[in-house]
């Protein structure tokens, strides 16, 4: 990989002030307690989930945007008992009359077309929700991904202003907007950017065991207005944070079984690819997503074993390797999650151009969780420091960026080392480590007694505030997110452009009143470059080559046209024909399993694939089928 740092002027994107929404425990609509949202997109399918207070089935209809043909599926409501209000909330906020646990509706759409836009609607009682979704690309295509962490939603975020340390003297003061408005503005900026996916690196809610906090999360991320519903248009993936394991200060805290009750709420809302853990309770806590040219590996870094050791990231939480512990997975060598991680990294290195790893505890940080683990001065009992032990593994398999949170600040660190490239010698490699914990809760500064020697950028230290006549006009720590655009220059070169976005609050110069916000980008843009070993004239590649089971042929078309790929043996005999009558311009992927037109396995040996378009033969290359 090649790293470039680009310095450019701040970019502006103006929007208007969001008006306040209803506060506590008001359903999204009479017939929806949580409006429909998207989960787990694949090239051929996607899952749509919503919740209701009654057990009536809903009707989901969908169609391709360019056709009138509709397909409809009726949902099967299932009581989500994990989402019942705890007795403490029932008594203190509902006077003993809290709603019953909601009904979960899940519809998995299958046999869809890759990289295709669809319209969908959900009719539930007298209410109808309408929005759009897109299936994942089968091959490589340009994508935009957004990452953030630590929104920590709760109803009490309204009119709650977070601490905002002064970077000049660290004097205490409060931020200019309350947490509710800061998070809402951040989400609205994300929505206008129309990303393909959103990843949250943990701490979605203040207390994972308090249902009102989850109500607040979905009230912010969904809407009955499908055009305004972020989660109704963009699939959201999430890594569990320590707050998802925290039942709450008035409930079980991190104790068992309260912690497991808390994380089950998280798992009820999200659907992810399976990790095939021998403990079924660990499904959804860590997983891998392949989307276009990128592999995303999401980890559960909320526990290390044994408890209160140098490998532990939460001294309060007892996990799978602790006596009387819950199912929080260990991440130390020998654990299932560690073995799964290495396997996933190995696959990502071969199959994807870029690999991003997402989890909650930031391993390199100048924040309060950057101290080594411990319970004495200058240590921390929820430290991200133990996760540094994974850096060698990340480096070995060429991870490009690690994205985390936990410290509620914005910081980028950089580690250099050596990647072991399959089939090649060692190569120099650099990993970017991000703390993106400014989603919508805290805006901390660094610890005065802690130095992060790997730091390359810190908002608190590198972005001074600019004040004019008592009005902030630029700079400073603000709520925001990381936006990554992955784009091809040609088949041999792709760029991943990492932009640190912040949402700047605007105030009238005349009266000092809040008037809106702008999307701005900190002056720390990072460009990662993937280069192929192909010659610049090549338009295709085949991997693995030699191959035993399946060979993948990737090719690039400069224009839309009818395309054929023909497999020949050494004698020039045609073995297999693949035809695409409506191939669009861009990247395409074809898998050959070594069989002929009749489905019979071809003998081992040398073969050739020829790519032919309406303009003629554009490339012929050799491939080797092993026994």
Characterise this structure:
By secondary structure, this protein is mainly beta. Helices cover 12% and strands 35% of the residues. The chain has 8 helices and 33 strands. The strands form 7 sheets. Strands 1, 2, 11, 12, 13, 23, 24, 25 and 26 form a 9-stranded mixed sheet that branches. Strand 15, helix 6 and strand 16 form a beta-alpha-beta unit. The longest helix has 16 residues, at 336-351. The protein is globular and about 80 Å long.
Q: What is the distance, rounded to the nearest whole angstrom, between the alpha carbons of the first and last residues?
A: 34 Å
The DSSP helix count reads 8
Mean pLDDT: 92
- Beta strand %: 35-45%
Total DSSP E strands: 33
Helicity, as a percent range: 10-25%
User: Structural class, please?
Assistant: mainly beta
Large-scale geometry:
globular
CA-based gyration radius: 25 Å
List the uncertain runs. Answer: 5-28
For the sheet with most strands, the description reads: 9 strands, mixed
- Indicate the multimeric state: single chain
């Amino acid at each position: 990989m090649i790293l470039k740092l680009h310095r450019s002027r701040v970019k502006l994107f103006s929007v208007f002030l969001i008006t306040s929404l209803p506060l506590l425990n008001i359903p999204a609509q009479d017939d929806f307690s949580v409006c429909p949202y998207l989960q787990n997109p694949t090239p051929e399918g996607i899952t749509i989930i919503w919740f209701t207070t009654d057990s009536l089935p809903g009707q989901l209809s969908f169609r391709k945007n360019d056709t009138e043909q509709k397909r409809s599926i009726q949902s099967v409501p299932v009581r989500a008992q994990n989402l019942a209000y705890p007795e403490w909330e029932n008594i203190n906020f509902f006077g003993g009359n809290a709603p019953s646990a909601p009904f979960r509706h899940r519809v998995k759409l299958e046999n869809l077309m890759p990289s295709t836009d669809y319209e969908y609607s959900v009719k539930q009682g007298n209410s109808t929700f309408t929005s759009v979704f897109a299936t994942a690309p089968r091959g490589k295509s340009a994508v935009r991904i957004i990452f953030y962490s630590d929104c920590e939603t709760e109803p009490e975020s309204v009119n709650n202003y977070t601490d905002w340390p002064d970077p000049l003297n660290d004097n205490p003061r409060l931020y200019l907007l309350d947490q509710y408005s800061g998070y809402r503005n951040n989400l609205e900026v994300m929505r206008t950017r129309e990303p393909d996916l959103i990843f949250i690196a943990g701490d979605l809610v203040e207390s994972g065991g308090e249902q009102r906090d989850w109500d607040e999360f979905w009230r912010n991320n969904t809407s009955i207005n499908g055009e305004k519903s972020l989660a109704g248009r963009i699939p959201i993936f999430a890594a569990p944070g320590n707050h998802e394991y925290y039942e709450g200060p008035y409930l079980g805290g991190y104790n068992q079984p309260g912690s497991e009750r808390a994380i089950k709420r998280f798992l009820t809302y999200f659907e992810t690819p399976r990790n095939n853990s021998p403990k079924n309770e660990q499904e959804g806590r860590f997983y891998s997503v392949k989307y276009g040219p990128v592999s995303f590996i999401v980890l559960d870094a909320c526990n290390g074993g044994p408890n209160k050791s140098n490998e532990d990231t939460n001294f309060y939480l007892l996990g799978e390797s602790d006596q009387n512990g819950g199912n929080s997975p260990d991440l130390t060598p020998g654990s299932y999650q560690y073995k799964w991680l290495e396997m996933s990294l190995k696959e990502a290195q071969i199959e994807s151009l870029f690999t991003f790893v997402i989890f909650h505890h930031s391993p390199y940080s100048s924040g309060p969780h950057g101290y080594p683990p411990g319970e004495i001065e200058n240590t921390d009992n929820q430290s991200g420091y133990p996760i540094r032990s994974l850096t060698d593994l990340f480096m070995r398999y060429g991870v490009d960026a690690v994205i985390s949170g936990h410290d509620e600040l914005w910081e980028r660190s950089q580690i250099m080392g050596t990647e072991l490239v399959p089939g090649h010698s060692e190569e120099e490699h650099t990993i970017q480590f991000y703390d993106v914990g400014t989603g919508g809760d805290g805006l901390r500064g660094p610890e005065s007694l802690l130095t992060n020697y790997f730091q390359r950028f810190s908002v608190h230290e590198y972005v001074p505030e600019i004040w004019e006549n008592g009005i902030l006009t630029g700079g400073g720590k603000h709520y925001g997110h990381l936006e990554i655009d992955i784009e091809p220059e040609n088949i041999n070169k792709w760029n991943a452009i990492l932009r640190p976005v912040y949402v700047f609050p605007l105030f009238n110069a005349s009266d000092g009143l809040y008037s809106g916000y702008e999307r701005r980008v900190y002056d720390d843009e990072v460009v990662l470059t993937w280069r192929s070993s192909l010659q610049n004239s090549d338009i295709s590649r085949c991997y693995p080559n030699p191959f035993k089971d399946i060979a993948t042929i990737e090719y690039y078309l400069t224009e839309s046209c009818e395309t054929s790929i023909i497999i020949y043996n050494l004698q020039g005999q045609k073995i297999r024909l693949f035809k695409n009558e409506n191939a669009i311009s861009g990247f395409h992927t074809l898998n050959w399993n070594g069989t002929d037109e009749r489905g019979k396995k071809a003998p081992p040996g040398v073969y050739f694939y020829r790519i032919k378009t309406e303009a003629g033969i554009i490339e012929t290359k050799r491939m080797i089928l092993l026994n």
